[in-house]
Each structure stands twice: as C-alpha cells, then as structure tokens.
Amino acid sequence: DLQICQHRAPTCCTKKMEESYQAAVRRERTQSIQALNFELKYMIVGHITAFQEAFESLLRFAENRTSSLFETAYRPMAKEAAEPVKELFTDISLYILGAETTVESAVLRFFDSLFPLVYSRLINPGITDLSEDYTECLRLTRQDINPFGHYSKNMVTELSKSLWASRMLSQALSLGIEVINTTEHAALTKECSKTLVKMQYCPHCQGLTLIRPCVGYCLNVMRGCLASVSELDAQWREYISTLEYLTNEMAASHDVEIALTGIWNSINEAILHAQLNGPQLSATVDKVCGQPKQQEGNLSSDNIVPVKEATADTRTFVMAHASLNNRRREFISYMKRSRTFYASIAERLCDGDLVMRDSSTCWNGEDVV
C-alpha cells in the first residue's frame, strides 16, 4: 500500500512511515531555509538597529541644541516653548520610521504653536490675558500673515529633501525582513513533499541508510519545489540596487546631519525676523484678533538677542556619523554579495551533507547508481 517509495524489492516501510517522512521533509526544509536566511536577516536587523540608534542620537543632539537656544536667547518663552520643540522632534522621528505624516505638517504645526509665544512674550511682552480664543486666533493668523518670512518654508524644504532617503531606507529595511520571513514559511506542495521523500527517505525503505541523493537529482527536485521562491530573483536584485542607491544618497553628504543640527538656527532666524517686523505684525493682529489686555506702561519689545551657535560636543556627533558611515559601507557590500540569494537557493540547499559529492555511488530516485 505504499504511495511514494514503491519498489520491486521487499521493503521495511509502511504507509504510516511515508506520512511521517512527509512531515519530516516539510520540517527539515523550513529549518534549512531558516538557516540560510539567518545570516542575511541578522545583517538587516543589525543595520536597522544601528540606523535607528544613530538617528535617535542625532535627533536628541538636535533637540537639546534647539532647547538651549530658547533657554539662552529667549528665556521669557523657554518654558512654554519646550512642548512644541519636543513635538517637532517626535514628529520628525515618526516620519523617519514611516508614519503617515509629512515634514511640512510637522514644521508648520511647530510654527503655529510658536507664533502666540513669540507675539505675547517678545513682540508685545505686556500682554497679560492670553486666552484660549486669542491664542487660537494668533495660531490661525500665522498662516495668513507669515510672521516668520521665508525661514519656515526653507526649513520645510531642507528637512524634506534630506530626510526622504532616511525614511525610504528605514521602510526598505523593514520590507526586506518581511520578504525573508515570508519565504521562510512558504508552504511546500503535496507533490513537492512526495518528491523530497522519494529523494531523501525512500532509500531507507530498502535498508540503504547511508546512501545520499545524486547532486543533479537533488538540484532538479529542489528547483521544482522552490520555483515560487526563486521567482523573487529579479525583484530581489532590484531591491539590493535600491538599498545601494539609498545608502549612497545618505552617505554622499552630511545632508541629514546638517539639516537636523541646523534646525535651531532656522528657528532663531525666524524669531528674529518676526521681532524685526513686530510693529507691522501687531497692527495686523490687532485688526484680526482685537487688542488683548496690556500691563500699564507696555514693556519694551526691544529685546532682540543675537545668539551664537549653542555650544555642544560636536566631536561625539562627528564620530557617531563616521561610525554609521562605516557600518553602511559594510552592510551594503554584504547585501551586494546576496544579490543571487533567491536564484541560488536550490544550489545552497543541495550543498553540504544532503548529497553525496565524493562517492561513486548515489541515489537517483529509483535505485543506487
């Protein structure tokens, strides 16, 4: 009653043993593909971790620098500005990690929150009643009167351009892991299970436990079983080329680093621009939002403080950047070597202990040859 290991000679197998063999080959194939994938997955996961750590470190550096700008140059609003600054950098981080948001919405939301503070603490420091309605009116007016000049738009342009490749790389790396995980669990067809049993276990039914499959026979069986996986070859090669392009885009210049660490300067320039145009802004705001309550003897708004670059340990930052660039180079050279990963998967599975390489006798599916 054997279905797979049918042979003229007497056999020591039963139908139930054939079913056990089918379960065994499915388990073994999954494990052997997982073993092949392990190194590749390990490299991608390691790079995702290194990339995210370096980026978080860079964001913290840029956020601390921006916070210190308010503490040193714009003390009257430093406490209230802390939350919008934190939100801005959280939004940038989420954007890099692939959230459904844009750099433009993050930056403009920040400047919407900043304008009521700049207006009431720096341009008109005598305002005492900053009600919710008045604050909301100032936020909405910001979009029409553009108090920060071209600086807010410039910041959007610079950040969008430099963060795009980082966002794409982050998404591409996650996609790579998804592809590998999916191929690991690609189900074997019933027909494939049978051909694998015939190749690996049918010799056992005749007591030939030491005979292994012939190389050519193994390759034919594996290529047939893994045809759907090896069809990924063209897309995988294209994927590696895309990774190479994105890592080169990021490493070609210090675009990301310059854009992020320059945020504090863009904000400073924007605030100075608003202060210099204070009288015109006040006149427009009074028409749109009305006049708020003022303290007697309005305080002078003549408190423009030019600020030099916030002192920070840039050496640590430069070293972190260099280290990340080295990791990028190592990673992409490894990934380039894996271009043929899916095309050669049958060859790699037939390599090693599975087949008989240095012997004159091997199993061809029907007999020992």
Automatic annotation (TrEMBL):
GO terms for biological process: cell migration; positive regulation of canonical Wnt signaling pathway; regulation of protein localization to membrane. The lineage of its organism: Eukaryota, Metazoa, Chordata, Craniata, Vertebrata. It comes from the Eukaryota. InterPro entries: Glypican (IPR001863), Glypican_CS (IPR019803). Keywords: Cell membrane, Glycoprotein, GPI-anchor, Heparan sulfate, Lipoprotein, Membrane, Proteoglycan, Signal. Coiled coil: none annotated. Cell surface proteoglycan. Belongs to the glypican family. Its main location: membrane. This is GPC5 protein. It is a lipid-anchor; GPI-anchor. The keyword Lipoprotein applies. One of its GO terms (cellular component) is side of membrane. The keyword Glycoprotein applies. PANTHER family: GLYPICAN (PTHR10822), GLYPICAN-5 (PTHR10822:SF19). It is found in: Cell membrane.
